[in-house]
Amino acid sequence: MNTSAVLDIGLQAIWIAAKLSAPILITALVVGFAISLLQSITQIQEVTLSFVPKAAAVAVALLVCGHWMISEMVSFTQEMFEKIPGLLMGG
After folding, report:
1. At what angle do helices 3-42 and 51-89 cross, to 10 degrees?
2. Which InterPro entries match (predicted)?
């Protein structure tokens, strides 16, 4: 196994991790920003107010994107398993 193969696998792993976490993180960011904006407008300074809407939004994002996330992870895993013989042979 050469250095470029290891770097390629590492880059693919980081890319798939970023793709899979993006819908959940972006949803939490948008909902958190909206709740913070609402709190600053109404001057309600309750820390726990943003937790329930954020958790509900993340659950909806998981329901909407869950199938895509699983299929991406399965295809990545299959691709890695298909690469094993070539990596062990040095090709």
Report:
1. 180
2. Bac_export_3, FliQ
Q: What is the 3-state secondary structure (H, E, C) of 30-47?
A: HHHHHHHHHHHHHCCCCH
Are the C-beta atoms of residues 22 and 60 closer than 8 Å to each other? Answer: no
Give me the residue spans of the domains in the chain. 3-89
Which tokens hold the place of 87? 């990596």
**Encoding tokens for residue 60?**
């909806």
All residues at 6 or more sequence positions from 65 whose CB lies less than 8 Å from its CB, including other chains: 23, 24
Q: What is the pLDDT of residues 14-32, one digit of tens each?
A: 999 999 999 999 999 999 9
Give residue 91's pLDDT. Answer: 56
* Look-up of token digits 């990596």: 87
Q: Distance (Å, rounded) from C-alpha 39 to C-alpha 60? A: 23
